[in-house]
């Protein structure tokens, strides 16, 4: 009886180990197929109206959107003149907040800048993001005109495109067109067919 009891326990432990291994493999597979989650990280002073508009528009492409509590812009991201915030510093800051399958989008009303080789060490930009990666930042500071919200959406989807691995595109109506410091948002209509094919399905 004692031998039979030990044998029964051994079989249960073995079966338990097999089931645990299967569960682990399945969990990894599920993670690989997991949807992309959009995480908004508004910085202090960002318009709640703009935030609500972005959430509504992006829900057409992403089913899960998380909105974090607004926080102050990190002081260490200020440039030497204390007038602009360094976009590269901001996305490094935001990257640390991200988890697997998340894209963290920093939203600010303040001016942001980056180093543009051969032009300026403090070049003002609309937005900036890793390509590919899990973090980007967009600013409303340079957005002008009566349709600012629509332009903000196009800017945001452009930076998300970079996070998903899309480079700049030569097609004038594509969301991935390089702004080159100018406001071309009214000419953008959608991702072109070439860029859309590159997006994760």
UniProtKB/TrEMBL annotation:
Cofactor(s) listed = Zn(2+)
Keyword check for tRNA-binding, yes or no. no
What the entry lists under SUPFAM superfamilies is as follows: Metalloproteases ('zincins'), catalytic domain (SSF55486)
Alphabetical UniProt keywords = Hydrolase, Metal-binding, Metalloprotease, Protease, Zinc
List the GO molecular function terms.
Answer: metallopeptidase activity
Q: InterPro entries this protein is in?
A: MetalloPept_cat_dom_sf, Pept_M54_archaemetzincn
- Tell me one Pfam family matched here: Peptidase_M54
The family database entries (Gene3D superfamilies) matched by this protein are listed as:
Collagenase (Catalytic Domain)
Tell me the leader sequence span.
none
Domain of life per record: Bacteria
Q: Sorted alphabetically, which PANTHER family does this protein's record hold?
A: ARCHAEMETZINCIN, ARCHAEMETZINCIN-2
Indicate what this protein is called per its UniProt record.
Zinc-dependent metalloprotease family protein
User: What organism does the UniProt record list as the source?
Assistant: Aquirufa esocilacus
């Amino acid at each position: 009886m004692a031998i039979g009891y030990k044998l029964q326990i051994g079989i249960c432990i073995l079966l338990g180990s097999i089931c645990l291994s299967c569960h682990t493999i399945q969990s990894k597979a599920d993670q690989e197929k997991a949807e992309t989650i959009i995480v908004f990280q508004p910085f202090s002073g960002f318009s709640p109206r703009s935030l609500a508009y972005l959430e509504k528009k992006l829900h057409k492409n992403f089913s899960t959107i998380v909105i974090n509590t607004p926080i102050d812009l990190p002081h260490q991201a200020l440039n030497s003149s204390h007038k602009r915030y360094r976009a590269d510093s901001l996305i490094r800051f935001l990257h640390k907040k991200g988890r697997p399958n998340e894209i963290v989008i920093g939203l600010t009303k303040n001016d942001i800048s980056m180093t543009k080789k051969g032009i300026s060490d403090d070049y003002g930009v609309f937005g900036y993001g890793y390509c590919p990666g899990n973090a980007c930042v967009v600013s409303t500071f340079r957005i002008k005109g009566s349709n600012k919200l629509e332009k903000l959406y196009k800017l945001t989807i452009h930076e998300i495109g970079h996070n998903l691995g899309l480079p700049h595109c030569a097609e004038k109506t594509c969301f991935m067109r390089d702004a080159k410091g100018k406001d071309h948002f009214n000419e953008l209509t959608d991702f072109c067919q070439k860029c859309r094919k590159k997006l994760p399905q």
